From TrEMBL:
Annotated Gene3D superfamilies: 1.20.120.1760
EC number: 2.7.8.8
Membrane topology (UniProt): Multi-pass membrane protein
Superkingdom of the organism of origin: Bacteria
Organism from which the protein derives: Afifella marina DSM 2698
The keyword ATP-binding is annotated on this UniProt entry: no
Low complexity compositional bias, start-end: 276-290
Stretches the record annotates as Disordered: 265-290
Pfam families listed in its UniProt record: CDP-OH_P_tran_2 (PF08009), CDP-OH_P_transf (PF01066)
Upper lineage: Bacteria, Pseudomonadati, Pseudomonadota, Alphaproteobacteria, Hyphomicrobiales
Keyword list, A-Z: Lipid biosynthesis, Lipid metabolism, Membrane, Phospholipid biosynthesis, Phospholipid metabolism, Transferase, Transmembrane, Transmembrane helix
The protein, known as: CDP-diacylglycerol--serine O-phosphatidyltransferase
InterPro entries: CDP-alcohol_PTase-I, CDP-diaglyc--ser_O-PTrfase, CDP-OH_P_trans, CDP-OH_P_trans_C, CDP-OH_PTrfase_TM_dom, CDP_ALCOHOL_P_TRANSF_CS
Catalytic activity field: a CDP-1,2-diacyl-sn-glycerol + L-serine = a 1,2-diacyl-sn-glycero-3-phospho-L-serine + CMP + H(+)
Length: 290
C-alpha cells in the first residue's frame, strides 16, 4: 500500500492555468468597489478631522454610511456575496465608523483632556472593532429565529458613528459649548461605544425598501426626495434630530423585542417543541452588513 501518491507537475501546471484563465464577472467585483469607495470616504474623514475641517469630515462619514448601506444591497441584488467581500466590509466599517469618529471628536474637543481624551477615543474605536468581530462570529453559528432579522444586537456601527457625533452637530447648529464640554464629550463617547458592544436590541431596518406596495411607490418617492432635500438644506439640524430620535427609540426597540420574544415563546409552547418555529433559510435574515 502506497502512502504517498506520485506528484504530477504537469497536472499542477494545467490546474494553475485553468484558475488563471477563469475570468471574474464584474458583478462580483462591484460590491467590493463600493466598499472601497466607502473606505476612501472614511479615510478622508480622518484627514478632514485632523485638519479641523469638521463639516467635510462629517460629510465624508455620512457618505461612507450611505455607501455602506448600498454595497450590501448591491451584493444581494446581484447575488455576488462572498467571504472576501464580507471581510473587506468589516475592515472598512472599523475604519469608517470606529476610527474616524473617534479621531474627529478627539481633534474637535477631547484633545483638551490630553491622555484621558485619547483613552476615550480608543475605547470607542475598540468597541467598534469588538462589535464587528462579534457580528462576524455570529454569522457562522446556528441561525436564529426568523424574527431576529428585525433587530441588531447593540447599536450598529454606522448608527453609532452618526450618534456619537451628536455633540459636534449640536455645536454646528449654534448650541454654546460650556467650559467642561470636553469631559462631557468623552463620557458620551464612551457611553455610545458601550452601547455598540451591549446586548441591547435595536431595530435593524433590513427589510425597509426590499418590497414596496405598488400603491405606495409615489408617496415613498416624494418622502425620499423631501428627506434628501432637508438633509442637503439643513444638514446639521437633520443629523442632530436623527441622532436624538435614534437614542429615544432604544427603549421602544427593547420593548418590541420583548414582545416578539414572548410571542415566539408562546408559539413554541403551542407547537410542543423547540423546533416548531420557522427558521430562516441559510443566509436569510443575516448579512455581512452591520
Amino acid at each position: 500500500m502506497r502512502l504517498f501518491l506520485p506528484v504530477d507537475p504537469a497536472r499542477r501546471r494545467r490546474r494553475r492555468r485553468r484558475l488563471r484563465a477563469r475570468p471574474v464577472p464584474f458583478r462580483v467585483m462591484l460590491p467590493s468597489i463600493v466598499t472601497l469607495l466607502a473606505l476612501c470616504a472614511g479615510l478622508t474623514a480622518i484627514r478632514m478631522g485632523v485638519e479641523g475641517r469638521f463639516e467635510l469630515a462629517i460629510g465624508a462619514i455620512i457618505l461612507a454610511a450611505i455607501l455602506d448601506g448600498v454595497d450590501g444591497r448591491v451584493a444581494r441584488l446581484l447575488r455576488s456575496q462572498s467571504d472576501f467581500g464580507s471581510q473587506l466590509d468589516s475592515l472598512a466599517d472599523f475604519v469608517n465608523f470606529g476610527v474616524a469618529p473617534a479621531i474627529i471628536l478627539y481633534s474637535w474637543r477631547m484633545d483638551e483632556l490630553g491622555s484621558l481624551g485619547w483613552i476615550a477615543a480608543l475605547i470607542f474605536a475598540i468597541c467598534g472593532a469588538l462589535r464587528l468581530a462579534r457580528f462576524n462570529a455570529a454569522l457562522v453559528g446556528e441561525p436564529p429565529p426568523a424574527w431576529h432579522s428585525e433587530f441588531f444586537v447593540g447599536v450598529p456601527a454606522p448608527a453609532g458613528a452618526v450618534t456619537v457625533l451628536l455633540p459636534l452637530t449640536l455645536w454646528k447648529i449654534g448650541m454654546p459649548v460650556p467650559d467642561g464640554a470636553a469631559i462631557l464629550v468623552a463620557i458620551y463617547t464612551v457611553a455610545i461605544g458601550l452601547l455598540m458592544v451591549s446586548r441591547l436590541p435595536t431595530l435593524s431596518g433590513k427589510k425597509i425598501g426590499t418590497a414596496i406596495p405598488r400603491e405606495s411607490v409615489l408617496p415613498v418617492l416624494v418622502v425620499s426626495v423631501f428627506v434628501i432635500a432637508l438633509l442637503v438644506s439643513y444638514t446639521w439640524s437633520v443629523l442632530a434630530i436623527g441622532a436624538i430620535l435614534y437614542l429615544v427609540h432604544l427603549p421602544f426597540a427593547w420593548e418590541r423585542f420583548e414582545q416578539r420574544r414572548r410571542a415566539f415563546s408562546g408559539h413554541q409552547g403551542q407547537n410542543g417543541s423547540a423546533g416548531g418555529a420557522e427558521r430562516p433559510a441559510a443566509g436569510e435574515g443575516q448579512s455581512p452588513k452591520d
